[in-house]
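Closing statement on the adenosine-5'-diphosphate-glucose sub-project.
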Amino acid sequence: MAKEPRLIVVSNRLPVEIERTQGGFTYHPAAGGVATSLQSVRKQREMLWLGWPGTPVWDDKDRRSIERHLVKEYDSVPLFLPPSDFDLYYEGFSNGTIWPLFHYFPQNAHYEAREWNAYKEINALFRDKILEFAQPGDLLWIHDYHLMMLPALVREALPEAKIGFFLHIPFPSSELFRMLPWREEILQGLLGSDLIGFHSHGYARHFLSSLLRLLGLEQEFGRVIVGDRAVRVDTFPIGVDVNGFESAMQTEAVRKELAELQEETQDRKIVLTVDRLDFTKGIVERLESFDHFLAENPDWHRRVTLISLTVPSRTGVPEYQALKKEVDEAVGRINGRHGKPGWVPIWYMYRFLPFDRLVALYGAADVALVTPLRDGMNLVAKEYLAAHPDGTGVLILSETAGAAEELGEALIVNPHDTEQISEALLHALTMSESEQVARNSPMLARLRRYDVVRWAEDFLGGLEPEIAPAKQQVQVRLDKAGINLLLQAYRSAKQRLLLLDYDGTMVPFASRPKEAAPDEELITLLTRLAEDKKNTVVIISGRDRETLQDWLGGIGASLVAEHGAQIRRAADTKWSVQTTEAADGWKSELRPLLELYVDRTPGSMLEEKTASMAWHYRRAEPELGDLRAKQLMENLEGVIANTPLVIMQGSKVVEVKESGIGKGRAARRWLDSDTIYDFILATGDDVTDEEMFEVMPDGAWSIRIGVDRRSAAKYSVRGTSAFRRLLHSLGDR
Ligand code: ADQ
């Protein structure tokens, strides 16, 4: 066993099914997302799982036998809970208060002090069980909304414990959360953790604003100071076992199921829906959308079948019984309305299906219709994609499922909009295979990289400590009088050096780097400046050489690409590569870390260049992008210590590069040459340009684009258009 600290996982339910048989008991591991993800963790470290073993009431002898077996065979510790309190805690507070409220159904939530007290009692029983087993150095990972008081209870008893908490359901807007009579206690309960994880950035933000509004606790980059402790709040979107689904698709059992299904449905298209029967899943609304689709598109009659697979859930609760009735009636009504001899529009299955059959259904479905009204993540959407490794199939996904944050290439719909879902169905059923693959491939690639194993490792890695804030530089500003002085100096000079950054300096940023091509006006302007015999124009950029060559190869200027890693002088046709001492291989070492940030930050991307790697986050959600950038820099700082690499944060980009390379060194090639320049202009907008500003001689005009920033440049102008005007003035001289 490796020397990693032991992990104690705590959840309401143990992932083991126990059945009484004649000779004693039988045990089956229950496969679920979290259980699967922790299989790999189990190989690296000792693990113990603590939770409730299921409903039957056992006598003392049974309990001892079950506990012995679970500890020995499953590394699991059962916590037998008193049935009376259990109902108040489970059906009552957990599923009758928290579940509806957190899923934006406040009208379904009830607030009973008795249930709340039972919830606290049961959480305290969990604490007692933990205390029986916990040893110094253990990591504790507590799961989900049943156990929100547990982190603080454990913290009180074990101040030094390392405690992580993960919420599998949404955390609602603070406006909803504040409706809970025991809202402060719940927040305090969660704050006993060192790390609190959510599926999406939105949930983390809601939690942080609840902390601010209800407890007055401020956060900085997802860190909240509670007394003398720091609590980190972060997002870890759970994945699925992609390899497991891919290999299941190859097994004989699944192939057989699939063949039978295809035989039964003939050449009809299959639309599949899979959920637990719950009011949050939007089952009735979805059936109504299908009804609408059939009414609007009679040509699709007989050509499509909706398979609705619904797993029974909370069957003892009256609201769930009423929902079951509503679903049954809707299915009957729609089949009655549209059905024809030989064609039943909806095949409705109300049961749990074994894995092989479920996978075969995923594989056979042309379209997955996943439209929960609210869902923490929704694994069905991801499982469907994983069961189509060739990238075919169409996913229609609700915008209010956590999964929508990552699966943006799906057909995203508002689950309440019958018309829109009906249109999405038509789009899905007629979508070309090439469009299907184009949409699904990037999603599959993300799911493969950030799978369920990675999710668990990422969370556990997050329980490690963090590092210090970034450095700052001197602030400067340029005024109108300065511009006039600059123009005078330019006019009277004999040899001028113009070092011009490109993105963010001469052109504004575009959401995709390839879209920031130079316009005609800029090309003309730069060509004119470069033609002037007194001028040496150098475009000094972080871009790759192909793009620079392509865009600016014809203006007659010298080009510096990749922050100085490649240089092409105006007089040359060839590029020269600048070398450093950095040994090869650093990129493959850092790539997994950078890819992790790509996966965890939807909209971001990785760019590889000769002597650097850059993580761009301009298209990411801004707050999340900034937070991740800071985390990535801290992470990188630890990794690259004592290597010839440096980290730079530019505008919406974090870049790691070989330290001998940089715009400073590149600029020196001209500054240190035999030519004596009596006018030097250096302009740029981000941290990569600071190196250039720093090597400028005293009389140089160094200008940073963007006011009120810290910089080593002497001056600043407001933005790219202001700088363009200045360039025009130079061009007119
Ligand atoms: P759930 O609300 O249970 O999970 P979901 O994420 O969709 O919702 O997971 C359902 C699971 O049950 C899937 O793995 C699916 O394959 C399986 N399943 C559904 N119907 C089935 C059937 N008839 N037969 C067999 N298997 C069936 C909670 C949160 C989610 C969050 C997960 C994980 O509510 O938002 O994604 O936890 O964090």
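The longest helix spans residues 113-133. With this model delivered, the sub-project is considered complete and its resources will be redirected to Aim 3.
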